[in-house]
Amino acid sequence: MLKIVTPKLLDELSHNAIISPRKRLNLNFHDDLADPINRMLNAFELGTYIQPHKHENPDKREVFIVLRGSLVVVIFDDSGNPVDFILLDPEKGNYAVEVPPGVWHSVFSLETGTVVYEVKDGPYLQISDKNFASWAPKEGDSGCGDYLMQLTDQFNSWKVRIKS
Questions:
Q1: What per-residue confidence (pLDDT) applies to 161?
Q2: pLDDT, tens digit (0-9, with 9 covering 90-100), for 70-97
Q3: Are 104 and 39 in contact (CB under 8 A)?
Q4: Fewest CB atoms within 10 Å of the CB: 79, 105, 116, 151?
Q5: Phi/psi at 112 (5° precision)
Q6: Which CATH number is 7-163 given?
């Protein structure tokens, strides 16, 4: 079956992400979690927190293609220090990033209505899909908001250094 991404679909997904407790929502395009290529739309709202993680054992690539809004992809070293920030924003000319297997990363939205097309090697098995960083708060922990604010501040400082 054809899967067509329309403004109406993006609006509906974003609306549902706004009212979601996690402030994000995905819509799978793959029919089965065992599919060798997982494809989905992923709507990210302000304040959503994704614990830094990597895809390793099994190794998986993860691709983010921004369709609307702006998303920051944070790359970390093994100690949890941010080493790069990639701003995905079609108005700024950065449309996509492919994160290789074994690379610590997280993402956060800079504006409401942000939606990406995400592609990841399958199959999806919840038990082994992500290796979560022990140096960052778990989703739902009390420190998530402060950690996200710290990452946002570091990104803003990084932007200033890049422009200088």
A1: 64
A2: 999 999 999 999 999 999 999 988 999 9
A3: no
A4: 79
A5: -65, 150
A6: 2.60.120.10
